[in-house]
Amino acid sequence: MNVTRREILAGSAALAGTSAAGLPRPAIAANEPIRIGWLTTLTGPGSAPGIGFNRGVEFAAGAINAAGGVKGRMIEVVTRDTQGDPTKCVNATQELISQQKVHAIWGPTNSGESLAVTAIMARAKMPNIHPCVVDTLIDPAKFPNAFRIAPSNGQWDEAARKYCLNVLKAKKVAVFGDTTGYGVTAANACAAGFKQEGAEAVVVANIDATQPDMTPDMLRARNAGAEAIVLWTVSTGMIARLLNTRAAMGWDVPFTGHPALASGDVAGLITKPANWEKVYAVGYRSCSFDATGALPPRSQELVDRLAGKVNLSDSLLWWVACGVDAVNLVARAVEATGETSSAAIIGHWNALDPYPGYFGDYRFTKERHNGYPEDGIVMSAANTAKSGSFALAPGYG
Amino acid sequence: MDPAPLADAGVLDAGSGALPARGARPSHLRALIPFLALLALAVVLPLTDNDYYALIATRAAIYWVLISGLNLIVGFAGQLAIGYVALFALGAYTASVLAAGTVLPPAPVVLALAGGTAMGAASGVIVGLPALRLRTFYFAMTTLGFATIVTQVALGWQSVTGGGVGVAGPSLPAPFDTAWGLYYLCLGIAVLCTWMTANIARSRFGRALVATREAEVAAEAAGISKPALLVSVFLFAGAVAGLAGGLFASLQTYITPDAFTFDLSLLFFIAVLIGGRGSILGPLLGTIILTMLPEVAAPLAAWSTFVYAILVLVIVLAIPGGIAALLDFRSRRPLPRDRAILPHLGALGELLNADRAPVALALRGVALGFGGVRAIDGLDLDVSSGQVHGLIGPNGSGKTTTLNVISGYYAPQEGTLTAGAATLPSRMPSSRARHGIARTFQTPRIIGEATVLQNVMVGGTTIGQASFAEALLSLPRQLRDERRIEATARLALDAVGLGALADVRADRLQHSELRFVEIARALMLRPAFLLLDEPAAGLSPDEIKRLGALIRAISRRGVGVLLVEHHADLIFEICDEVTVLNLGRVLAHGTPAEIRAHKEVVSAYLGA
Amino acid sequence: MLASIVASGLAMGAVYALIGITYNTMFATSRVMSFTAGMLGMLGGVLGSLFMLRWGLPILVSLPLTLLACALVGVVTEFVAVRPVLKSLDQHLYVLSTLAVALMIQQVTAIEWSTEPRPFPSLLPMGSGMWDEKYWLPVIACAVTVAGLEYLYRRTLVGRAFLAVAEDNFAAKALGLPERNLRVASYAMAGAIGALAGFSGGQLLLAFFANGPLLNFYGFIPVALGGLGNNRGAVIGGLALGLFQQAANFTFGGIFASVAVFVLFIAVLLAAPQGLFGTATARRV
Q: Which domain does C204 fall in, by range?
């Protein structure tokens, strides 16, 4: 459990869109730091997003503290590396709540863990922001304390599906997932979505990500007449194998699906760069550049601020931006209410409609805790990474 | 039938006088102290009023519920079940699915947990089945494979298990719906499991488990049926694993397949290893240490598997006995150096009553070959009650093979084998005890880490009548069994002259003493026939003399003894008849005097 | 389609068979089944990638280096995890000691190399489609290994000494054969064979730390099917497994394919515990 405590001084002016106004704060908490629990996977398989988020978290906390903190109160991030293990995550969550007495928790960053700790955090009324995609994680009635600042699985799914139907004009698709919990669920949901819109998922399969040869699965897809392949996995090895198989078969079917399709690791694993053409990964408007190579202005501002401090070349801009937003959301709630009580923080978030973050304009109300805007999700061309952002896929104006 | 001449020879202690003084018996209370101390700590823990402590302690209690059962399999029976997380997952899923009502109508939580327990028990047997037929490494691999399959099925069977999204764990009713309420529930179940496994460990079943691990052939000769025994244990261990899984699901509030990692499986397995085989306190401490380790050794998170691996290696190479061995201070006290084995005829008389109907063990035309070699070739042999029958011959003449055919390790290819009116089935060594056939081995098959008394008590496994379930709950019949087996074992030890060493670890004894321990173990059956395989090997002349007198005294109590031996003097001194084997055939048969005069025997064997 | 299943099935089968032979080679001289067999295969891929891609060494240097490094791992395994527990073979402590070494190898690879799969370079850019080198390289490697072992065992003095030790190591010791050195040599040889499996299958398996347990399991199945210590059995079992697995992948898909493989494995083991080509167990008393 890496305990990362940072007490760096900074001014609240560094906060994006911060208002100077605030309620008079209770004297007792005047100099007590704002403690943010941060649950993520920093080591082991699947740690790339966690490392990316963490860069944003450290940057944001550092920037706020360097500017003097929030009304004189420093941000203290208490980091716990859960290694993707729900059991470790449950232990760490309880420890953050009971031992560390944090004021809010950001994370965990993987759905399997989040499912296991959501009820625990709800019981403790712990303000919680997370980026986990499983739809059922957000339910303002059952979990009034939990807010999502990234798209849900349904939103990703919808973006990929719409792209297949409207831009690629594919009516028959093959849906693949890996054999992890995420892959199985996502593939099934995706297939159901296509069916609902009158299209057909001609093959729905879960492939063991370690399976050395993907030819049988690709052959099945081709034989069934698939016009596009939708892929839900975080395994870069599996992605690369599928792309290489596609090339070896001399098949030019387009791929769409999970953001990992655009991961830098894929570049090393494909046998030739051309194999990565016609691959469209879920991406974000805020982290995509247009035909002229320009990012949206707010994102550009962040990239400029990060320059020289945070390495974006081996990470993704959206991970970093999301990490920055998470810390800012907590800091802003404390600044606006002058309190660190659960009720104050949650109450503040419930009224953010919208909150202009770097990653997107979040909209939260008492009834809506799934804050990421639908129109913020786009498809990007997988092989166009440049400092963690991507070119919009063909078909976006 | 008169022991007096032997006693006169000063070899045996024939008197009915005082038996050799025994060491103080280990106080059961003293063994309980560490458990009570842990329990006291556990009971006052809620005073901290820290939910985090409640969580970790509840987790440790739940893990221990599983490990207490696994301990019987790994620590006692020595079966390398590495993938026990599979049963844990099955219990968790069954309980959750029943409570959630995705298959059947939602069940009350108690029923759901019972369902998880039943599922664990059934799967425990299925996972265990390969262990009855396969060798260790194979079994380790199959349990690993099974663990993989269970998570795969949990993923694939989405309509029931929720696939990757998982399913909510059963939520317990008041008063168990708070952190400390659940803690007390799990603690109570953990205490119950500790008590039950301790009952098993102290029973004939526990000793039999250790015997199948350390001395499998001796266990079979004592009438222990490994399949029946293991199935009972797999059933129990599976049940507690399933129950632990259900409780785990409640504690986690939500389960997904990725909660059931290989690391968790390793934790279960290593807790037993660290604790030490054949102990209960050790694995309990191991469980507590391993549950807390990741919480206190936080910077090691990334290296946790590596740390586990190092632990395993260190334990295997440096302290194979684990924590239990480190805590075993008693076994470091020196034993008296000038001790002697003094068989005690009074005790023997008490143990074996002479008045039983004579029977005969008969081999007719028995033949057995290995590859092209005829190890025994048409052998006729009779062993009668009250007689010592010597079986001699050069190396490779078929003596031990004959013993092994009689004890059922080998199936004869031709010929018949009868004891009294009954025909002995081939290849069923564990059936021999019921026919009153007991034996010893060329190399003593002893459980080194068990006491001498426990070793001898293994021989009395078939005396017991209480079932596994009765032993689990320590019911009256079980307690009666124990008292009787222990009394018989002390008597047998006194008879062979080792009463003073009853409570010493067997691996601290000398080789010659182990031979007498084996005889005591064989006597536990109050056998009709006793097969001795070179009992005098490695004994001093004095000890051989006492051994001869003991064997003769045993036979005079109505036991038919078949003695395979190289010491010609001993054979000729105590045997009533002698058979000489050569190349698997009977070379000569007769009284010792006749054999001594037999020309071919003298030239082929004795003359050498 | 059938051709494609056959090509990839034979290729994977050859890798599994080589791992099976790795198990057998270690078993022959020590009576120990070692969990390091699959790890050696994994290291073959990782080291090959390290030498060729990260350090830019040519294949003619990288291959011998990889084999040598894994041979060394084999020898270390013998010293650390096998030799100390040989005297109490019947307690099966080797299962634990070799598991520990295997886990250490895996964890160090995960941390020092990567937890993501890394590319393995193309060795001899030739062949395409079904005739891509990644399909036939493992088969060639397997054939060469089997032929080499046959030659070693049947035609050379050292090889016969190996066989003598495998047959009866007490008798071999009594004959004055350097039983201990032969054992170390067999562990080195097993290391090299495992490395060759990973190296030749590198393009299929990629340089990935999690290949270890996978190869451990799928490499063990040919041994269980073919009979312990029987290399020919391992080759037949391995190729059969590879074909069955690929066919199952094609017909059932990922999750149920692995269930099918496991069920078949258990069924065969329960029906024929000695394997399909194995011999009966030794005397117990």
A: 2-271
Spelled out in words, what is the top-level CATH class assigned to the domain A12-152+299-374? alpha beta
- Between chains, do C273 and B134 touch, taking CB under 8 Å as contact? yes
Considering only CB atoms, which chain A residues are within 8 Å of B166?
112, 115, 181
Backbone phi and psi for residue B375, each to the nearest 5 degrees, phi listed first: -75, -45
At C212, which CATH number?
A: 1.10.3470
- A-interface mutation test, from C46, C130, C135, C206, most A Cβ less than 10 A away: C206
Smallest CA–CA distance from A44 into chain B, residue: B302
A42: Cβ–Cβ under 8 A, 6 or more apart, which residues? A2, A50, A51, A54, A79, A81, A83
From A300's Cα to the closest Cα of chain B, the distance in A is: 35
Mean pLDDT (whole number) for B324-344: 83
CA distance linking residue A182 with residue B163, whole number of Å? 8
Backbone angles phi, psi at B364, to 5 degrees: -130, 115
Radius of gyration of chain A (CA): 21
The beta-carbon neighbor of A119 closest among B50, B254, B257 is B254
Burial B256-284 (b: 16+ CB within 10 A, else e): bbbbbbbbbbbbbbbbbbbbbbbbbbbbb
CA B529 to chain centre: 24
pLDDT of residue B274: 84
Task: Report the neighbours of B using a cutoff of 3 or more CB pairs below 8 angstroms.
Answer: A, C
pLDDT tens sequence across B82-135? 889 999 999 999 999 999 988 888 889 999 999 999 999 999 998 888 778 777
Q: What angle do CA C76, C82, C84 make, to 5 degrees?
A: 105
Please count the other Cβ atoms lying within 10 Å of the Cβ belonging to residue C75.
Answer: 16
Alpha helices in B278-390 (DSSP H): 281-296, 304-317, 322-326, 345-351
What is the pTM (predicted TM-score) of this model?
A: 0.88
CATH of A154-290+378-391, one of 2.60.120.10, 3.40.640.10, 1.20.58.220, 3.40.50.2300: 3.40.50.2300
CATH top-level class of B358-436+527-608? alpha beta
Closest CA in chain C for residue A246? C129
Helix runs in B327-451, H state only: 345-351, 399-406
Q: Which two tokens stand for residue B495?
A: 């008879």
Under an 8 A CB cutoff, do A81 and B301 touch? yes
CA angle B433, B503, C85 (to 5 degrees): 75
ipTM above 0.90, yes or no: no
Cα(A311)–Cα(A316) distance, rounded to whole angstroms?
A: 10
Q: Which pLDDT tens digit goes with each residue over B77-86?
A: 988 888 899 9
Query: How remote is the C-alpha of A282 from its chain's centroid?
Result: 11
* Residue extents of the structural domains in chain A: 12-152+299-374, 154-290+378-391
Q: Which of C110, C201, C249 sits opposite A216 (nearest CB)?
A: C249
3-state secondary structure of A296: coil
d(CA C40, CA C190): 9
Q: Span B332-343, mean pLDDT?
A: 83
Q: Do domains A12-152+299-374 and A154-290+378-391 have the same CATH topology?
A: yes
State whether B312 and C99 contact (CB < 8 Å). Answer: yes
Length of chain C in terms of residues written:
285
CATH code reported for the domain at B444-526: 3.40.50.300
Q: What is the mean pLDDT of residues C274-280?
A: 67
The alpha carbon of residue A211 is apart from the nearest alpha carbon of chain C, in Å, by: 8
pLDDT at C280: 52
Chosen for mutation from B73, B125, B137 (greatest number of chain C CBs closer than 10 Å) is B137
Answer yes or no: is pLDDT of A170 > 70. yes
A25: pLDDT strictly greater than 70: no
Q: Which residue, B393, B397, B396, B416, is CA-closest to B405?
A: B416
Please count the structural domains in chain C. Answer: 1
